[in-house]
Structure formats: C-alpha cells, structure tokens
Design a protein that fits this description.
Elements lengths: L1 E2 L3 E4 L10 E6 L8 E11 L2 E6 L1 H4 L2 H25 L1
Antiparallel strand pairs: 1-2, 2-5, 3-4, 4-5
C-alpha cells in the first residue's frame, strides 16, 4: 500500500468507480484498533485504486502520526543505500 496524509493506493480486484466513497480500515499496530478513514476513489489503474482521504480523515491525528512514522522508517531503510552509492 502506498500511503500519504492525503490518500493511498491499494491493490485490489474490487470493482469500484471514481467518486465512490469507502470507509477504509488501516491497521497500524496489533495493540491498537484499526484506523477507520473515509476516502473517495480518485482513479483506478494497474497500480491499484487511488483513494483521496476526505477532510475528517486528513485531520485524524492517529493517521498523521502513522504516516509520519512510516515515512521515517522508509527514509531510515533507504539512507544507508543512498550513502553507499555516493
């Protein structure tokens, strides 16, 4: 899953249409209840279904913290590779 504060892309074979609204559950940690966020389908492609989080989801503090923590983890995994290539 490709995830940002503004939305996400999910691989799925589910038939959806642009502007459909879904309530997505995002598992952040086994010790916490999943985040439930409202999202609208923006596009469908080979990459997957692109969702735009609706305003209430974009203001969700748990979602923001989760996205930021994933960004830091992603950066930390890439940083050694980038340094080695220099």
């Amino acid at each position: 899953m490709d995830l940002s504060v503004g939305g996400c892309i999910i691989k799925s074979d589910t038939l959806v249409h642009v502007d459909d609204i879904f309530y997505l559950e995002i598992t952040t940690d086994q010790d916490q209840a999943p985040l439930e966020v409202a999202a609208m389908v923006r596009s469908v492609s080979q990459r997957g279904i692109a969702f735009k989080f609706l305003r209430a989801a974009q203001e969700n503090k748990r979602l923001l913290a989760f996205v930021q923590s994933r960004s830091v983890e992603h950066h930390d995994r890439l940083a050694p590779k980038l340094r080695a290539a220099s």
